[in-house]
Amino acid sequence: MKILVCISKSPDTTSKIAFTDGNTKFDENGVQYIVNPYDEWYALVRALELKETGGGSVTICTVGTATDDAVIRKALAIGADEAVRIDAEPKDAYFTAMQIAAYAKDNGFDLVLTGKETINYNGSQVGGMVAEAMDAPFLSLASKLEIAGSTASVELEIVGGIQACDVQLPAVISCAKGMAEQRIPNMRGIMAARTKPLNVVAPVEVEDLTSFVNYDLPPAKSSCKMINPENMEELVDLLHNEAKVI
Amino acid sequence: MSTLVYINSLDGLAKNALEAVTYAKKLGGDVIAVTNGGCSSDDLSKLGEYGASKVLVDRSVTGNDPQQITRLIATAVESTEATTLVFSHDLVAKAIAPRVSVRLKAGLVCGAVDVPNGDTVKVNVFSGKAFGFVKVNTNKRVISLLPNSFQPEGGGSSCAVEEFNGNAGDAAITVKGTKKPEGEIPLPEAELVVSAGRGLKGPENWGMVEELATELGAATACSRPVADIGWRPHHEHVGQTGIAIRPNLYIAAGISGAIQHLAGVNGSKVIVVINTDAEAPFFKAADYGIIGDAFEVLPRLTEAVRKFKASN
Ligand SMILES: Cc1cc2nc3c(=O)[nH]c(=O)nc-3n(C[C@H](O)[C@H](O)[C@H](O)COP(=O)(O)OP(=O)(O)OC[C@H]3O[C@@H](n4cnc5c(N)ncnc54)[C@H](O)[C@@H]3O)c2cc1C
Ligand SMILES: Nc1ncnc2c1ncn2[C@@H]1O[C@H](COP(=O)(O)O)[C@@H](O)[C@H]1O
């Protein structure tokens, strides 16, 4: 089975979020990029497990510029066979998804895995868009995935519970917690990642449907009101009369 | 100009459905709701009270298959000539809205927190640490509204409900079964949440968290290490790598307030923090703080809520 895992980069989860150029650009000063946690911990690791038990190959795919190669190597160190970088600035989710879908269609992948969302834009958009462009089913927020022949059996997060369902491949599946456990790359993996193929391919032409104009930081919280731990009646009173939440 | 709102009514009308209709009404113009499933016409007609002028229902689509619903919505957009399509950004919409955007070639804005200003919409980005302003470059647009950003505004009169054939085709996904824990309030929807972390010391101590939650009618949540060690189920884990919630009230006991935890809860309207350590970073994000032992404060708070309820 041929599995394609969509890998995006995101700022390290502890990064300070700030903007420059009149709030039009994310301030990358001092920001460390990591592999988006959902893509790495859940999608990639589950893909590797499926390959280990059922054979086949795992390719990782990123829409990005040469500055993303370091992050791609980090993902390769965890164990994919090869990487593909579609050489373009990922302008919006639609642009990104059309690139991935074009590549996946041309190269006959049975299964495309994405993370649940990127932790910078949190859109949960790319996976569903790839699926629609491939005219394939999309299973969103899977917490379990098994493959038998050409059938994928998954458990999905639904409002207030879990749903078990089956779907025929090819399919696109977004991966959430529960799929797999985080793997720490070992020295061998890191060494091997240096020489694994990282193919750079040209993007297809796509118009951008949306664009980020500028950003804003939320107002700082006014200072915290301290309450005597003996006096929970006061807290209840404040929650009722002042905050009006109960 | 008309706006179409997709309503997921399989389990009845949830609050976020009413929020979406209220939001659509604020855009000006005619509001039409479209839905699938078995909700009674009587119930659906209530969407009129929040601003819908009619509801289109395709009862042949009995599940949540995103491909079927995408086709259904595309048909409805065509027949209503709607230019804006509104979703509530819940688990169902996350699977459908992106598909619809591609099918209609309409720019998608996910996680909207405000009404559009011209062609620009304000969204939540960087896990709630910032806002972005997204410009839509297409004539048609799809807006997926972050739940709990607008309160439902009723008061109108009920509206007509029309049976509708959305040419939805067959489902691609075969549903084998659904597990929903009985009686629990689903966390993503909850208005009140009681959450606890490693400070609770062990799973055997969650009784007091649950008691407070029951007394308040709140859902329970936890920090990541607590779910990772197996003290609590995975679906309770909130934060950067768990789920993001925006309740009206978030009570956090024995949670330090690491930046990755805050990323999942900083959209809460009011945050109460209970921690023995006055230096815990969570106090910086809190509205009300209690420096104290959760083992004493939680039962006391439960008792105070009980008294409050008895006298109100
Ligand atoms: C990439 C990445 C992603 C992450 N994602 C998430 C995420 O999604 N969600 C998440 O929660 N974490 C996440 N984390 C982990 C996060 O950094 C913290 O380690 C975690 O949130 C700490 O959990 P905690 O507050 O329960 O435990 P601790 O940090 O151990 O804090 C326990 C707190 O309890 C207090 N305490 C102790 N005893 C008592 C008592 N008797 N009464 C009251 N208070 C008491 C202590 O003072 C302390 O503040 C992530 C980390 C990384 C690196
Ligand atoms: N630039 C990108 N290159 C490759 N995959 C991406 C890119 N951006 C997003 N993805 C994938 O799409 C998923 C959802 O992203 P988003 O729609 O931004 O929340 C991510 O978890 C990735 O798996």
Overall mean pLDDT of chain B: 95
H and E order of chain B: EHEHEHEHEEEEEEEHEHEHEEH
Terminus-to-terminus distance of chain B? 46 Å
Question: How many DSSP E strands of chain A?
Answer: 15
As a percent range, the share of strand residues of chain B is 25-35%
Number of helices of chain B: 8
CATH class of chain A: Alpha Beta
CATH class bucket of the largest domain in chain B: Alpha Beta
Q: Can you describe this structure?
A:
The complex is a heterodimer of chains A (246) and B (312). Helices cover 29% and strands 32% of the residues of chain A. Chain A is built from six helices and 15 strands. Chain A has helices at 37-54, 69-78, 93-106, 126-134, 187-195, 232-242, and strands spanning 2-6, 9-11, 19-20, 25-26, 33-35, 57-64, 82-87, 111-115, 138-148, 151-158, 161-168, 171-175, 198-201, 210-216, 225-226. The model of chain A has no long low-confidence stretch (mean pLDDT 95). With 312 residues, chain B is an alpha/beta fold. Chain B is elongated, with a radius of gyration of 21 Å. The chains are: A alpha/beta (246), B alpha/beta (312). Chains A and B meet through helix 1, helix 3, helix 4, strand 9 and strand 10 of A and helix 3, helix 4, strand 5, strand 6 and strand 7 of B.
Give the structure's gist in a few sentences:
The complex is a heterodimer of chains A (246) and B (312). By secondary structure, chain A is an alpha/beta fold.
List the topology elements.
The complex is a heterodimer of chains A (246) and B (312).
Chain A: E1 2-6, E2 9-11, E3 19-20, E4 25-26, E5 33-35, H1 37-54, E6 57-64, H2 69-78, E7 82-87, H3 93-106, E8 111-115, H4 126-134, E9 138-148, E10 151-158, E11 161-168, E12 171-175, H5 187-195, E13 198-201, E14 210-216, E15 225-226, H6 232-242
Parallel strand pairs in A: 1-6, 1-8, 6-7, 7-13, 8-12, 9-12
Antiparallel strand pairs in A: 2-5, 3-4, 9-10, 10-11
Helix pairs in contact in A: 2-5, 3-4
Chain B: E1 2-7, H1 15-26, E2 30-36, H2 41-45, E3 54-58, H3 66-80, E4 84-88, H4 91-104, E5 107-112, E6 120-125, E7 130-136, E8 141-145, E9 160-163, E10 174-179, E11 192-196, H5 207-216, E12 219-222, H6 224-228, E13 249-253, H7 259-265, E14 270-275, E15 288-291, H8 294-310
Parallel strand pairs in B: 1-2, 1-4, 2-3, 3-9, 4-8, 5-8, 11-12, 11-13, 13-14, 14-15
Antiparallel strand pairs in B: 6-7
